[in-house]
Specification:
Layout: H1 10-24, H2 26-38, H3 42-46, E1 53-54, E2 57-61, E3 68-72, H4 75-87, H5 113-127, H6 135-148, H7 151-158, H8 163-170, H9 174-183
Antiparallel strand pairs: 1-2, 2-3
Helix pairs in contact: 1-2, 1-5, 2-4, 2-6, 6-7
């Protein structure tokens, strides 16, 4: 599997959301939007239930690490989640699979990671960028770092335990760090 990257251009971030909506579905565009705003791994993002949200806060245990993610939902995430809830009041999952409609006896299931991966890959190929499901999390981390230059804050948001891992994860290269030293003269 090819390594995916953070999307560093704000225009590209908007274009990806737009292309996902027109080429795939509104649901894929919503996944991109919510994923950018929550910085969760795709498996955790797809498993979010409406019942996991209380008082504009999402609380869930991450499947990979077992750590608790306690995330206050920003205005954009809340708007999308409320719209989805209004459009699909009977859904259990925010990103519920529509295939379950075919079988009344089966319990609701979230959308599959595979379908999201396929949609993101297709848009990435169209835009000639390395785009995948981890791009949402990496993109949020990258832009938080660019806005704050506070790697500890980014680590905490991503629930990482090493600065080196976080810098590599969000795509901060040695060249960018060197540029910061050259650009900032005191």
């Amino acid at each position: 599997m090819a390594e995916v990257h953070a999307v560093k251009s704000l225009d590209a971030i908007k274009l990806i959301g737009h292309l996902l909506e027109i080429r795939c579905s509104k649901q894929m565009s919503d996944i991109w939007c919510i994923g950018l705003n929550l910085a969760l791994r795709i498996s955790d993002l797809l498993s979010v239930k409406f019942s996991d949200i209380e008082n504009d806060r999402l609380v869930l245990r991450e499947s990979k690490t077992g750590k608790v993610a306690n995330i206050v939902l920003n205005k954009k995430a809340l708007e999308v989640i409320k719209r989805i809830r209004t459009e699909h009041p009977d859904h259990v999952y925010i990103f519920q699979s529509y295939r379950n409609r075919q079988s009344i006896s089966k319990p609701p299931m979230p959308l599959s990671r595979r379908s999201v991966t396929k949609a993101f890959f297709m848009i990435g190929e169209e835009m000639k960028i390395s785009l995948g499901t981890h791009s949402m999390r990496k993109t949020r981390g990258y832009h938080l770092y660019q806005n704050t230059k506070d790697i500890a804050r980014v680590m905490k948001m991503l629930r990482h335990s090493s600065e080196g891992v976080t810098l590599r994860y969000i795509g901060i290269t040695q060249d960018e760090i060197d540029k910061d030293f050259v650009d900032l003269e005191i």
